[in-house]
Design a protein that fits this description.
This protein is of the alpha+beta class. 32% of the residues lie in helices and 23% in strands. The chain has helices spanning 11-18, 58-72, and strands at residues 24-26, 29-31, 38-42, 49-54. The strands form 2 sheets. The protein has a two-stranded antiparallel sheet. A two-stranded antiparallel ribbon has the order 3-4. The N and C termini lie far apart (49 Å). 3% of the residues are buried.
Length: 73
Amino acid sequence: MSNTDIPQLTQRATDFLARRTHTMLIGGQWLAASSGQTLEVTNPADESLLGTVPSASASDVDAAVRAARQAFE
């Protein structure tokens, strides 16, 4: 696959990814993982680093589920 075969991202997507470090939206707040751990996300087309995302723990997931349930009610 040549570089010309790789789909190009929109400017909005490029700007988002340029931040490199991302957080989770839980209960209306942007949060890092409670453990502080992160995961690197790579582009499968060329294996370049796209960014870093929080590595959510079970407690992070529980908090997200509680917040979603509360918002639903």
